[in-house]
Automatic annotation (TrEMBL):
GO biological process: base-excision repair; mismatch repair
Keywords of the record: 4Fe-4S, DNA damage, DNA repair, Glycosidase, Hydrolase, Iron, Iron-sulfur, Metal-binding
Gene3D superfamilies given in the database record: Helix-hairpin-Helix base-excision DNA repair enzymes (C-terminal) (1.10.1670.10), Hypothetical protein, domain 2 (1.10.340.30), Nucleoside Triphosphate Pyrophosphohydrolase (3.90.79.10)
Xref: Pfam families: EndIII_4Fe-2S, HhH-GPD, NUDIX_4
Stored PANTHER family: ADENINE DNA GLYCOSYLASE
Its biological purpose: Adenine glycosylase active on G-A mispairs. MutY also corrects error-prone DNA synthesis past GO lesions which are due to the oxidatively damaged form of guanine: 7,8-dihydro-8-oxoguanine (8-oxo-dGTP).
The protein's name in its UniProt record: Adenine DNA glycosylase
Similarity annotation: Belongs to the Nth/MutY family.
Cofactor list: [4Fe-4S] cluster
Species: Acidocella aminolytica 101 = DSM 11237
EC number(s) given by UniProt: 3.2.2.31
GO molecular function ontology, one term from the record: oxidized purine DNA binding
DNA sequence: AACACGGGGAT
DNA sequence: ATCCCAGTGTT
């Protein structure tokens, strides 16, 4: 869950998740649809599908791998997470290199090559840190201390070098470069796309949803139809804006209410439907539009 | 090596 | 507005 996501965002999802799946066996026995529902709103939904597959693989092999190579072979476990589990769970002498460790390392050794090209050399430099005797004595603590140093002291902007325990050893600080590292190449401008979402409600406020294919954007998640699911008097409900990683979306929302939904369609209560954030915005816009329509009728 | 893949909080 | 976060998988 913490891959590319801050702790404060993850916490409520983590709590829900562990309440639903106290052990890896529970998670493996769950349906992927239920796992996706618990993940709705957290983003990067491949993580949910991979974690579920990972749990099934772990159960199938009778337990967790306890070496880096074994962990690395599991779905959703890349070089970072394999090392994080290795260091924290198994006290292996490895260093998980996350964004914090990259930044601290780039500054500590004054590495001025720009990302992402310098990622390799920064990772190699970071790995040297775990060769220290005290670090190897507690690899999990060392890694987590480094995360926290990056998150609270060696921050992306205006790092607090005055209170940094490593300031005396920091080449970036000595060179007066600390706040300029790591150097990053400017990312391409985010394109803008447009789309339409149809919100079909019944009298009990159930909304028609579709399940996305298991790969690609919002893979495996419940979403609103992009084409009208039935002929109806569709009302405009305005537009919502949403920014994805690599494009910005303007979504036009249309809404209709019918006495009963078509037979066999997926649906959920509009207020609690487990959908990605962009779809939650669309549902809220649709409900707002309907409420205003009701106001107009009452006043007329 | 480059790209696809969410969402939200900090600045 | 921009940056960036306890990154991974695919092309």
């Amino acid at each position: 869950m913490l891959q590319q996501t801050v702790v404060a965002t993850v916490r409520p999802y983590y709590d829900k998740f562990l309440a639903a799946y106290p052990t890896v066996t529970h998670l493996a026995a769950a349906s992927v649809e239920e796992v996706c529902a618990l993940w709705a709103g957290l983003g990067y939904y491949a993580r949910a599908r991979n974690l579920h597959k990972c749990a099934q693989a772990v159960v199938a092999m009778g337990g967790f791998p306890d070496c880096i190579e074994g962990l690395r072979g599991l779905p959703g476990i890349g070089p970072y997470t394999a090392n994080a589990i290795g260091a924290i769970a198994f006290s292996l002498p490895v260093l998980p290199v996350d964004g914090n460790v990259e930044r601290v390392t780039a500054r500590l050794f004054a590495i001025t090559d720009p990302f992402p090209g310098a990622k390799k050399s920064i990772t190699k430099a970071a790995e040297r840190l775990i060769e220290d005797k005290d670090a190897r004595a507690a690899p999990g603590d060392f890694a987590q201390a480094l995360f926290d140093l990056g998150a609270t002291v060696c921050t992306p902007k205006s790092p607090n070098c005055l209170i940094c325990p490593w300031a005396a050893h920091c080449q970036g600080q000595a060179d007066g470069l600390a706040d300029t590292l790591p150097v990053k190449v400017k990312k391409a401008e985010r394109p803008r796309r447009e789309g339409v979402a149809y919100v079909l409600l019944d009298k009990a406020n159930n909304v028609v949803l579709l399940r996305r294919p298991p790969h690609g954007l919002l893979g495996g998640m419940l979403v609103l139809p992009e084409v009208p699911p039935i002929m109806a008097r569709w009302r405009q409900a305005g537009t919502v804006e949403h920014v994805f990683t690599h494009f910005a979306l303007t979504l036009t929302v249309r809404v209709a209410r019918v006495s009963a939904l078509p037979e066999g369609v997926l649906s959920a209560p509009v207020g609690s439907a487990p959908v990605p954030s962009v779809m939650r915005k669309a549902l809220d816009a649709a409900c707002l539009a309907l409420n205003h329509a009701g106001d107009d009728k009452r006043s007329a």
